[in-house]
Amino acid sequence: MLDKLMAEAGENLADAGATCILICANTMHLCIDAVKKVVNIPVIHIAEATSNSILEKNIKKVALLGTKYTMEKDFFIDILTSFGIETIIPEQEERDLIHNVIYNELASGIIDSISKEKYLIIIDKLIKSGAEGIILGCTEIPLLIQQRDVSVPVFDTTKIHANAAFELVK
Asked: Which family does the record assign (predicted)?
């Protein structure tokens, strides 16, 4: 069902004269292949753009934060792996917390300092586990976490994705 809706949206954008397509949600990249099949314009994959940014910093191991779907399904991690980037994700309980904060707080504009502290504890644990960078793999996470909060490079997929589109069409 989602593949069909996303493919139709892609066709509509191409028919309207779009020169490229961005799927502006990390999780919805689950449907990117359906969109690519029906259009003849570039569809920029958020994980590919993010992988390029990671490699520019000579980083080989990152932690991925996002919705449970983004952290647990292979559509994002497989792209990172294809670029030679090792990816770690938080433990199950931590993934649940990250996911719930996204849906129950950030998506509603709630920025809670306690949730931020919990995220930073998870991030610190991931850094201690070898993460050289942290992927903010959900459009809402940068509302809570910024580079100044973290001791290793942070990769804001939303900004990276938008910049990749700008570079393509400029």
From this structure: Belongs to the aspartate/glutamate racemases family.
Q: pTM for this one?
A: 0.94
d(CA 146, CA 150): 7
> What is the 8-class DSSP label of residue 62?
E
Q: Which two tokens stand for residue 72?
A: 């647990």
Q: What confidence tens digit (pLDDT) does each residue in 54-109 have?
A: 999 999 999 999 999 999 999 999 999 999 999 999 999 999 999 999 999 999 99
Looking at domain 46-155, its CATH architecture is 3-Layer(aba) Sandwich (3.40)
DSSP state of 18: -
d(CA 96, CA 77) in angstroms, rounded, equals 18
Q: What separation in angstroms does the CA of 130 have from each of 39, 103, 145?
A: 40, 28, 19
| HSE, side-chain direction, 13 A CA sphere, residue 33 | 4
User: H/E element holding 133?
Assistant: strand 133-137
Domain ranges of the chain: 2-45+163-169, 46-155
C-alpha closest to that of 134 among 84, 83, 88: 88
108-131 exposure pattern, b = at least 16 Cβ within 10 A, e = fewer = eeeeeeebbebbeebbeebbeeeb
